[in-house]
Amino acid sequence: MDSGKKPQLIHLVIALESALLLAFLLMLTPIGGRLALSERAGMVGSGEQEGVGQTEDDGGSVQDDPEEKTFIRWVDFDIPAEVLKKAFRCDVDTYLTGPHLNWIELLAYLGARYGGDFSRYREADLDAVTQRLLAGEQMADIAAGMEYYPYYLEAYTAVLGGMVGEYQIEIPGSRAPDFALPKDEKGNPVPTDENVWVTKYGLKAFSPVAKNFPYTDADDFGDSRDYGANRVHLGHDLMGQAGTPVIAVESGRVETMGWDRYGGWRLGIRSLDGRRYYDYAHLRKDYPYHRSLKEGSIVQAGDVIGYLGRTGYSDTVNTNNLEEPHLHFGIRLIFDESQKDSGHEIWIDCCELVRFLSINRAETVKEEATKEYYRVYQMKDPAIPGGAAEQRMPGRGDAMYTPA
Asked: Would you say residue 279 has pLDDT above 70?
């Protein structure tokens, strides 16, 4: 070899080794991890429609081209239900006492601390930051040196943003505090058998399965599926009895209703802030949806929206082809409309979130004449402009009745 070319070759080798080392170090960072996840996710499809129109994604939270829009491209959500509950209790318990702790900010702090890996969670870390906040420090100051805190705050707000807040709801008169009861001419509370309205602050999102209906689940996000094409499962399956009432997790607008070869009868509801798309699939044959629904309908969290079944895995509409009745429930995040129904969809593992939501399950009642279910306790969600239609069983008014 020409001796004059040896220094050039050595420099080339050194440059290549440096580039490989830099790439390796990048993958150890939270951003690098999300890049890897995004590329892996780009090889699969969406929800129960896996294998349809999916292409590789460049991942990351922003595009490299400064002239193009910047928005989050991938979210890895693995917060355990017990951590969600503890952060939630911190929020609710301080709502009226001040300083009011924001549960999403607490979770974003932990996400930034752990690089999104909650297998590293220690309760002492959450206790320490809550004590600093209760002592008067501001989260903006505490998290000022955490490079990825803004990312986790935006990402976790996209997942949880509509789930906690003020709302009005009916409760049985027998459980109502005196201030919520009707009053006599002297202003004294009068006991009543009817439901009464109270204002609450807390969890205004619901489990997707109605109260008093049994179900089982397992974390099957990412499991393989082979019907139609090799793909992965991007949702959470809840195994239950056919006909079990399916509940709207959050208030929103019905965006999709109809048949899909993978998901059977399915229903898609978009949150009112536009960030979350809730996918409910494998609904019941012949009568999948609540009769009050149509595309464009506004639903309130806790409304009955459909019925659990085993439809799907067929090009023939209204076919039962699943062995076990279950609800496929999925959550897609949308930071930009270009991510909707595209090869760049963001589906999150919602298993732990569903387990957290199980602390709030909507009670239902069955109308025997039609076999339709209705919610027992009405709700007024201030997130709905102008309110939404109540879902009362015909002819029952405000009277108390026995839940299913």
From this structure: yes
Q: Is 37 exposed, middle or buried (0-12, 13-18, 19+ CB in 10 A)?
A: middle
Q: How many CA atoms lie within 13 A of 208 on its CB side?
A: 31
Of 206, 203, 204, 216, whose CA–CA distance to 327 is shortest?
Answer: 216
Q: Is 311 helix (H, G, I), strand (E, B) or coil?
A: strand
The single-letter DSSP state of residue 97 is T
Q: Are 384 and 110 in contact (CB under 8 A)?
A: no
Interatomic CA distance for residues 238 and 197, integer angstroms: 32
Residue 30 near residue 115, CB atoms below 8 Å: yes
Identify residue 350 by its one-letter amino acid code. Answer: C
**CA end-to-end span of the chain, whole Å?**
86
Higher pLDDT, 391 or 19: 391
Q: Which two tokens stand for residue 167?
A: 């709302």
**b/e string for 49-75 if b means 16 or more Cβ within 10 A?**
bbbbebeebebbbeeeeeeeeeebbbb
SS3 160: helix
Rounded to an integer, what distance in angstroms lies between the CA atom of residue 304 and that of residue 364? 8
**Domain 215-380 part of CATH 2.70.70.10:** yes
Look up the pTM and report it: 0.82
Q: How far does Cα 14 stand from its chain's mean position? A: 47
For the chain, the 3-state helix, strand and coil shares in percent, each to the nearest 5, are: 25, 25, 50
| Token code pair at residue 249 | 């997790």
Instruction: Report domain extents, the chain.
Output: 12-41, 81-161, 165-203, 215-380
116 — pLDDT class (breaks 50, 70, 90):
very high
